[in-house]
Amino acid sequence: MSTPLAPTLEAFFTDRLLCQQRVSPNTIASYRDTFRLLLGFVQKQTGTRPARLELTQLDAPTVGAFLEHLETQRGNSARTRNVRLAAVHSFFNYCALRHPEHAALIARVLAIPAKRSEKRIVTFLNPEEVKALLRSPDRTTWAGRRDHALLLTAVQTGLRVSELLALTCGDVQLGTGAHLRTLGKGRKERIAPLTSQTVAVLRVWTRERGGQPADPLFPTRTGTPLTRDAVERRLAKHLHAAQRNCPTLRSKRVSMHVLRHTTAMMLLTAGIDTSTIALWLGHEQERTTHIYLHADLALKQRALDRATPPNGRPGRYRAPDSLLAFLDTL
Questions:
Q1: Are the C-beta atoms of 88 and 108 separated by less than 8 Å?
Q2: Residue 210 CB coordination number (10 Å)
Q3: Are residues 177 and 234 in the same domain?
Q4: pLDDT at residue 1, as a whole number
Q5: Is the pLDDT of residue 215 over 70?
Q6: pLDDT number for residue 205
């Protein structure tokens, strides 16, 4: 016979996430993997099968030990640890409604803080690197023409890889006001405008591709949607070819998400404000876009040039007091 934990966890997925919040399949998969790992960890520690676990066995010390296990035994980063903790917090917020008798235990789990992680400067491609990458697919082949259209669409629109792979033939509008219609994070529909270059390429591709409106825009040879892994493998292949003509690509780790960063940087250097870029990329909050302000040294230099006093005196600052000088050395 199952304990209260099992039906609560099942209801969390089927009722809370799927019906009430209507989260994306990617979120479901991430939360599912989190609880597979957590329940497996607790089973090893206690010998209790997941279906027999009590909610009280998922207390704050146990969750804390699980998070420590992720970092020390599985080699997960602080960022991944925080993703797992967010899933646990979401579940315990749901538990607070269904099991108020465990309010103290739930509050202690919810009080576990996220771990600070290093914020790396985003990687992006410069215009010459973009050109080299887009020239690399062999457009004498069907797969090369598909990959060229996909990579060009990714760089120009900044769509997430999941959004690219979910595009159907019916999502493409190539007439006046050409655009792509996509369903992004949080099931938010948005429109991605297309440049004349992308319109020309997609017009040729859709004519060759054919298919019904519900068919994937970028399919495999058998007509099924491409997978994320398949797209990353195709990107790696074309990147390797592009590196022969563009040496600067050899020092960069390029993924499909880097192409999304590239879109943001192209918009930013063109003078587009961050609020517009946030809408373009489908960001929940404008401050998410601020990472791109830190990535471009040219933007920082222009800001510095505007801020430098015209009559500034060169030289190092010298503290006027010995105690202040000591504090400056710390």
A1: no
A2: 9
A3: yes
A4: 45
A5: yes
A6: 95
| Stated pTM of the model | 0.68
pLDDT tens digit sequence for 115-158 = 987 767 778 899 999 999 999 999 999 999 999 999 999 999 98
Give the CATH number for residue 101.
1.10.150
What 3-state class would DSSP assign to 192? strand
In a domain, 115, yes or no: no
Amino acid at 328: D
Q: For residue 46, is it within any domain?
A: yes
Domains contained in the chain, number: 2
Residue 53, pLDDT > 70, answer yes
Joined tokens for residue 36:
């597979």
Cβ atoms of residues 280 and 267 within 8 Å? yes
Which residues does the annotation mark as catalytic? Answer: 160, 185, 257, 260, 283, 292
Pick from 37-51, 83-97, 164-178, 312-326: least confident: 312-326
Place of tokens 């003509």: 245
Distance between CA atoms of 178 and 6, rounded to whole angstroms? 49
